[in-house]
Specification:
The chain is globular, with a radius of gyration of 16 Å. The longest helix is centred in the middle third of the chain and has 22 residues. Strand 1 and strand 2 form a beta hairpin. It is built from six helices and seven strands; from the N terminus they run H-H-H-E-E-E-H-E-E-H-H-E-E. With 176 residues, it is of the alpha+beta class. The chain has a seven-stranded mixed beta sheet with strand order 4-5-3-2-1-7-6.
């Protein structure tokens, strides 16, 4: 696979460790939502930008409670996860204007997810023609926007929705 120079990624590589434990459990407990890439929070879930995105705006909607078994989610957690997914799709539409989106979960070891013991739903914006020869032929992925810029677009789009509270421009929005 070829390499593309991406100097903005060094901040992620050199971030404070917390290598022990589940990152989906550790990140929401920090007091730095922007640094953790958390763009929105609700009662039972949060929306996190993927640090290895398939496309700009690739987000994950994640329940706070650590479980890898979908059937273990309570009704309240299921509803909140779905509502936050709906709001994430709205924010992606308003902030990035894609032509469509893919959503889904990788459940269990064999499903291909890198973190299989903490549920998370991927929300991937798609644009007409976004799959080109680079990933298909050359095994190279091109990301056209820096993750900090994507954070700004989605943070503003979440904040424009009804039922949202923004305490600090650098923190995640809170769904009320």
């Amino acid at each position: 696979m070829d390499e593309l120079f991406a100097p903005w990624r060094i901040d992620w590589v050199e971030r404070d460790g917390d290598a022990d434990g589940c990152p989906f459990c550790v990140l929401p407990d920090r007091d730095a939502d922007r640094d953790s890439r958390i763009v929105a929070r609700s009662e039972h879930a949060f929306c996190l930008l993927n640090n290895a995105p398939y496309n700009p705006g690739h987000a994950m909607v994640i329940p706070y409670r650590h479980t890898g078994v979908y059937g273990e989610l309570t009704e309240a957690e299921l509803l909140d996860l779905s509502r936050l997914t709906q709001r994430t799709l709205r924010a992606i539409e308003a902030g990035l204007g894609p032509d469509g989106a893919n959503t889904g979960m990788n459940l269990g070891d064999s499903a291909g997810g890198s973190i299989d013991d903490h549920l998370h739903r991927h929300v991937v914006p798609r644009w007409n023609g976004d799959t080109n020869f680079m990933p298909v032929i050359d095994e190279t992925q091109v990301i056209v926007e820096a993750i900090d810029d994507t954070y700004d677009h989605l943070h503003a789009a979440f904040a424009d929705q009804e039922g949202i509270r923004v305490d600090d421009p650098d923190d995640a929005v809170h769904i009320v």
